[in-house]
């Protein structure tokens, strides 16, 4: 009896804002799935629970049952069984390679009586628990190389197994754990280097590599000059460097900027003379500039010569659409943008989306569900969805920061990372801002595995948070 009373008290302490946000997203998601498959519901004789809307409703009911189950379970259950759940997730990832069903070139699914289950979704939950258990262990110290290596191996192993399916999109989402590691004290320099390399990769494919090399030289030289004693000669050299870039871009002769900047730098070095401070700057920046220049050439060569055709096509759709067939992969993005823009400010109305009804947008109930929202609910609907996700992420941060134990904090930031990465990539790919990766929008996209696992993630987060009042 006392145990039941205790459970009721803990349920009363639940974060109702987070719970209401979760329920709102799930309800909106089901309505959009219903809308995207409305023609299927009205024009076919398929039983309701065999349609996407029907299957998603079953997943929502299962999710609600799991929510209740989580709240009648002692919160210590999740920390005690973190590693067994993680190992079970890895076992599923291995088993699907041998017994899974191949869909769209990837062996990523178990087919169970007409219903599919994606092990990589469950592996996300297991990895979150394992990371929380390891980082909350009193002997773990991320300042030590051994601890950092083990922490990264915990999510590197599922990444490797998922890439064997192959499912690059799902594997990329595990990179969300770097959000957690940043909160736990990872050196931000590595994040800056990673973002710089990503920027160089994008620039190398978007522009002539020689221009990118010229930009690197100009930025590097500007950094050097800004750290030295200011005078008119240095300001003139900085302006001349950027002037060379503009002139070479206008004249379509990129080598002019590269040679000009190298000559300008050499002349400045001779003019400035030997200085210890200048020497230190050059020792740091010159190798960085050379490495960045080499990376730009390697990036373009790798994309053009080593990636598989479908992978190269996705990169081209993202960064070089002029090289793509508008009736091929580019068609997805073009139709998605058209659907979103056609909604204008307030949208066409629920079940009134013409592009949605006529199935002009491929995969509109899964990867491109956001285009259905844009067409039917317009700018207001888009802002509402973005606002709900931002609110959910802010609540995850609040839960993590007020946690009374490391396990809850780590779990909350792991949850934040997965929501952030899925949110950013899915919405980005519907608008052509990131490559098409087949990553669902949590709680919104059709997919029983995704709905159930993200609901389980949310339930455990709320359960761990409510327990802080009783520890």
General description of the model:
- The protein is an all-alpha fold and 471 residues long.
- The chain folds into two domains: 2-89 and 117-186 and 327-470, no CATH class; 191-306.
- It is 73% helix and 3% strand.
- It contains 21 helices and three strands.
- The protein has helices at residues 2-12, 16-36, 38-43, 52-71, 76-80, 82-99, 119-135, 145-163, 168-173, 177-183, 188-206, 209-226, 232-251, 254-272, 276-305, 309-319, 329-342, 354-357, 369-402, 406-430, 448-466, and strands at 101-103, 106-112, 115-117.
- The longest helix has 34 residues, at 369-402.
- The chain is globular and about 70 Å long.
**Can you write the helix and strand succession as a string?**
HHHHHHEEEHHHHHHHHHHHHHHH
Structural class category: mainly alpha
* Biggest sheet strand line-up: 1-2-3
Q: Which regions contain 5 or more consecutive residues with pLDDT less than 50?
A: none
Helix content: over 70%
Tell me the overall shape.
Answer: globular
Strand content: under 5%
Chain-averaged pLDDT = 81
Number of domains: 2
Rg of Cα set: 26 Å
| Major pleated sheet | 3 strands, antiparallel
Helical run tally: 21
Distance between the termini: 20 Å
Instruction: Tell me how many strands there are.
Output: 3
Question: In brief, what are we looking at here?
Answer:
With 471 residues, this protein is an all-alpha fold. The protein contains 21 helices and three strands. The mean pLDDT is 81.
């Amino acid at each position: 009896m006392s145990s039941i009373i205790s459970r009721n008290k803990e349920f009363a302490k639940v974060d109702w804002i987070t719970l209401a946000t979760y329920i709102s997203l799930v309800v909106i998601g089901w309505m959009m799935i219903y809308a995207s498959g409305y023609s299927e519901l009205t024009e076919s004789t398929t039983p309701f629970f065999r349609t996407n809307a029907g299957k998603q409703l079953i997943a929502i009911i299962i999710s609600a049952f799991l929510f209740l189950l989580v709240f009648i379970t002692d919160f210590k259950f999740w920390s005690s069984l973190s590693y067994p759940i993680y190992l079970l997730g890895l076992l599923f990832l291995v088993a699907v390679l041998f017994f899974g069903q191949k869909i769209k070139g990837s062996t990523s699914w178990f087919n169970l009586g007409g219903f599919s289950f994606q092990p990589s979704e469950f592996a996300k939950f297991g990895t979150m628990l394992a990371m929380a258990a390891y980082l909350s262990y009193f002997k773990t110290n991320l300042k030590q190389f051994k601890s950092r290596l083990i922490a990264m191996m915990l999510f590197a192993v599922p990444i490797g197994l998922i890439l064997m399916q192959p499912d690059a999109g799902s594997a990329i989402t595990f990179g969300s754990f770097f959000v957690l590691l940043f909160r736990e004290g990872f050196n931000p320099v590595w994040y800056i280097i990673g973002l710089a390399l990503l920027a160089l990769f994008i620039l190398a494919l978007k522009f002539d590599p020689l221009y990118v090399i010229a930009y690197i030289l100009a930025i590097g030289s500007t950094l050097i000059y800004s750290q030295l004693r200011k005078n008119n000669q240095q300001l003139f050299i900085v302006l001349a460097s950027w002037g060379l870039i503009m002139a070479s871009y206008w004249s379509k002769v990129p080598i002019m900027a590269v040679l000009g900047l190298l000559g300008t730098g050499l002349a400045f070095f001779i003019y400035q003379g030997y200085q210890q401070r200048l020497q230190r700057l050059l020792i740091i920046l010159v190798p960085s500039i050379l490495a960045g220049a080499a990376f730009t050439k390697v990036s373009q060569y790798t994309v053009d010569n080593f990636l598989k055709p479908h992978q190269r096509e996705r990169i081209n759709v993202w960064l070089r659409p002029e090289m793509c067939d508008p009736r091929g992969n580019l068609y997805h993005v073009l139709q998605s943008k058209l659907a979103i823009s056609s909604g204008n400010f307030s949208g066409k109305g629920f079940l009134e989306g013409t592009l949605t009804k006529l199935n002009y947008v491929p995969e509109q109930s899964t990867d491109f569900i956001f285009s259905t929202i844009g067409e039917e609910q317009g700018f207001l609907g888009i802002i509402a969805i973005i606002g709900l996700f931002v609110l959910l992420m802010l609540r995850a941060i609040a839960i993590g920061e007020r946690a009374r134990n490391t396990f809850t904090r780590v779990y909350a930031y792991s949850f934040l990372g997965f929501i952030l990465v899925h949110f950013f990539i899915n919405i980005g790919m519907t608008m052509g801002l990131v490559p098409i990766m087949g990553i669902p929008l949590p709680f919104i996209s059709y997919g029983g595995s995704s709905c159930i696992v993200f609901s389980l993630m949310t339930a455990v987060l709320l359960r761990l948070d409510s327990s802080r009042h009783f520890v």
